[in-house]
Amino acid sequence: MEKKILSRGAIYLVTVVVICELLSFIVPAESVTVQKNMINAVYLRRDKIESLAFGRSHGGSLDYNIWDKTGKNLSMGGQDIASIKYSLDYLSPELPHLKEVLICISYSSLYFDNEALSNGNLNDARKGLYAAIPSYTLISANDYNNMVFGKLFAFIQADYGFRKLVKALKDKEEKKASKQVSHIVVDTAKILQSGKIDAFDHSKDKKLALQYNPQIREQYLAYLKQIATELKAKKIKCIFYTPPFYKAYTDNYPPKDIEETEKVMAELCKQTGTTYYDFSAYKKMADNIALYSNADHLNEDGKEEFTQAFKQVLRDGKGPAEYPGLKIFK
Amino acid sequence: MLFNSIQFVVFLVIVLVVYRLLNQKGRLYFLLAASYFFYACWSFSYLGLIFFTSSSCFLSGLLIEKSPDKRRKKLFLTLSIVVNFLILFIFKYFNFFVQAAQDVSFYFHYPYHFDFLDILLPVGISFYTFHSISYVIDVYRGEVQTEKNLFRFLLFVSFFPQLVAGPIARTKDLLPQLRHLDNYKYENFRRGFVLIFWGLFKKMVVADRLAIAVNHVYNHVDQASSVSLIIATIFFTYQIYCDFSGYSDIALGVSKLFGIDLMLNFRSPYFSKTVTEFWRRWHISLSTWFRDYLYIPLGGNKVSQGRWIFNTVFVFVISGLWHGAAYTFLIWGAIHGIMLVVERYVYGRSIRNIKPGVNLKNILRWAVTYVIVIIGWVFFRANNLSDSFVVFGKIFEFSNIATDVKSLFVPGGAESLIGLKFYDFVLAIVFVIMLVTISFAVRKTGVIDAVLNMSLVPRWVFYIGVTFLILWFGKFGVNEFVYFQF
User: Fold this and answer.
1) Is residue B300 in some structural domain?
2) For residue range A26-76, what is the model confidence (pLDDT) as tens digits?
3) B369: domain range?
4) A162 with B427: Cβ contact below 8 A
5) Contacts of A153 in chain B (CB under 8 A)
């Protein structure tokens, strides 16, 4: 009798797993595809990669086409500090020529908790990372939900087909629209127009509020310290930076979080011998809305200008006098 | 630890494996330990409370049995009921009555500020308190054998599949089954897993999707429109059904894996043709509990007409309060109680003999019942009494209906109106229609038996199909079951 239970159970499990694997291959979830492609791209050029960049979506502001070194920007919406550590643990031993790691610190980096939602980050960043990296260790103790879903059900997105369909239609519309307008200024314009400037404040956004967890800061700082120390031991330079944000974004973000981030990053740099470049209020860019696709994300022109500026600061070691608004912490 | 979480899957697999390795005695202790662990995952500090409730009822049972005269038996029964209801009262109703007293003092212009208790409501307290008390009453009535094994009795109260949200098991059904903890049987596993999958489908695919719209609208009723409130209210009727019956199905399924049958809690309640019939199909374990332990002791229907009306309405008001310490639940219970009285006058004694079948009369009866049940749900779901009146006021305003309906089909319109993306809104409707159609098609046998009676291929298509419906369309966030709050 029990043999029958076990055999039928096994047939059921094998069938489900086989279908899951097939679907993960045929229709992988977007977050999985993106991260798998990024990790694969690094792995394929592992003998050439000299630089890697990480961070939440704001990390996308660094353009490797202009950067001095051969590298890959692995930043992704929702990527948290724990995930960066996880990725580095896997990647750094594979990259013999890695010379520098750039970590983007957003205002939310030390406060947004991907574990706060059992479903992981709102955009499934952690599930994607688990699917992309062939390791079976957990990012953090309670993260097995993301690990199981990322490893086994990598095809899953809520309402997969429908979301895909809607997205495809939307993309088509946006493509059409982008032909007519060179710079899409989406929420910034809308929000400024409506006068609801506090929309930049995560405490007023229900979805973001779910992830806001001030208690996570110490844990993330410990990870940052570990990253900096381990990279230093391998003679890899670790650079922290914050890209420029449009001034309305900074003005309406909870000031306490910004001040605290600055304070703890300054302390971290002192302790680990690293440098933190804070471009968030870099005057030349913070006042110019034409460089943004929305309040806190640079568009292509903005990325180019920021990368050039960052390169120059690193190369010439020019201080804040030449770059009004830039803050450097050592 | 929610039934729809990975933690529970891991827990269940471990419990099933270890259970198989043990002998009869070991199984009893192990299931008890597993059940207490399950409860400790909710609240470790309240473990003592469930232990106290169980052991006090166990002791009362023994004392009642050993008492030589009826007076003393009654004394122990009363003591047990008073102590346990007092605990329930302190944890669940104290603040409600204090608030009510304060409201009254303000109303009569003698404002008085009372002190409120700062305590959390222990999860499942209403369920396990009723569960334990029914045992003491059964022993007092001589309907069941007194349990001599404390551990078995503790397991009877805390058996994890039914611990936090029922079904409220009866002594004569559950306790004897715990005396013979058998090996696994293939048939039990088959039925158990079908129940679990069907329950998960109802909860994760239907209820949790509908909940997004319901919460969006009902948590901001002042900003809601007529159309959004109508949609959210209809959605809530299916959300609450799928949520609670889904939970019950999973509870029945998990229990069945261990060879233990729990009481059926739902029999397609929305196909009821009268409110009276609705209560024979909805939350059956609670409605029969109230029938057997409150309504009948009050005299049932073998009393004067006035007393019978009082009995009926009183029982339903108490049933409303059982769900929560709020005026909204009280009104919800009263509406159902009054409707039972009204139906008795409309249908007379023939109410029990309404013939089934799809005909115009029955469709009309069904429609009237459905509307009454929906009206009741407004009170049940509203965050407070004033919100429920706002809901009715706005629904019957019928303002901007055409504009709002049109806006559902405009990009972003559904999301701003009911908090669901358009495709999610369409999916919600598709799944509700699918559920109603399936339930109607197999209304005689029920979904589970219909599946189990299928031949091999369609049955396996069902297994795999439901699995992938859950994996694709299920909402995998932290979504508690509605009835956990009771």
Assistant:
1) no
2) 777 777 788 888 898 998 998 999 999 999 889 999 999 888 888 999 998
3) 188-273+354-485
4) yes
5) 471
